[in-house]
Amino acid sequence: MKTTNNIFVSCEQAKYICDKNQYGEASALEIIQLNLRLVYCRVTRAYSKRNTKLTQMIEKSNIQAIDVSQKKVMKQKLHEELTK
Amino acid sequence: MSTNTIDPNSWIDKYSDYLFNYTIVRVDDREIAQDLVQETFFAGLKSMKNFKGEASERTWLISILKRKIIDYYRKINSNKGKAEVRINYSTDSETEGDWLEERVADPFDGNAESEIENEELGLAIHSCLDKLPEKQAVIFKMKTIQGFDTEAICNEFDITASNLWVIIHRARTAMAECLEKNWY
């Protein structure tokens, strides 16, 4: 999805910015666009609220994952064990 | 009658992160946790024939993992491994009632409950991740949990940044829905 320079954005674009913003990757202009949309669009507000809550939950849970490279090693080992 | 089947080839993709999270809160060391998860899979392979299919594959693997964690604590002979419940309060009337004082909740130790809640939340998140399509789940995990750069993920999967955000958007929507159903 492309971003525009117009400060009025569509609902879909606002959701896209909101997603990026959860990872701190929205630009200053995008944040202004999102905030403006939030003022008058109920759908964007609901999406934003839910999205923020998801981010907070993931942070709170302190969830972790095994590195992708490590998983490959584990797969390899398991495969060796399977074919023994 | 067995209703659940076993497929070791899919174990790492399906369960390794779930088992890893279960372990990490108990051993607090990434490397040891990874080793324990790997050992669990090996032990699972060995005892595959004993799997009756009454429980789900994941529940069965967790039951093996629990033994592995206990064995680990025994092996390093930690206080946790030696911990046993020993209560020998005398019936002496002079000391009667002492236990009451000892058992009063410690006001500074109020974290246990929230820790348990956070662990359960972590496992609930993993259950929801399991329901996502595989590619979505992998990318979502890399971006959200492991904090990879957008560019790094795009290179790894040979996709554009727009593709990535579409995948993230779908994953986030599904995750929020799933957690709403199962958590709050």
UniProtKB/TrEMBL annotation, chain A:
This is Glycine dehydrogenase. It comes from Aquimarina aggregata.
From TrEMBL, chain B:
Residues 13-75 form the RNA polymerase sigma-70 region domain. It comes from the Bacteria. Belongs to the sigma-70 factor family. ECF subfamily. InterPro entries: RNA_pol_sigma-70-like (IPR039425), RNA_pol_sigma-70_dom (IPR014284), RNA_pol_sigma70_r2 (IPR007627), RNA_pol_sigma70_r4_t2 (IPR013249), RNA_pol_sigma_r2 (IPR013325), RNA_pol_sigma_r3/r4-like (IPR013324), WH-like_DNA-bd_sf (IPR036388). NCBIfam families: sigma70-ECF. Keywords: DNA-binding, Sigma factor, Transcription, Transcription regulation. The keyword Transcription applies. This is RNA polymerase subunit sigma-70. Gene3D superfamilies: 1.10.1740.10, Winged helix-like DNA-binding domain superfamily/Winged helix DNA-binding domain. GO terms for molecular function: DNA binding; sigma factor activity. One of its GO terms (biological process) is DNA-templated transcription initiation. It comes from Aquimarina aggregata. The keyword Translocase does not apply. Residues 124-175 form the RNA polymerase sigma factor 70 region 4 type domain.
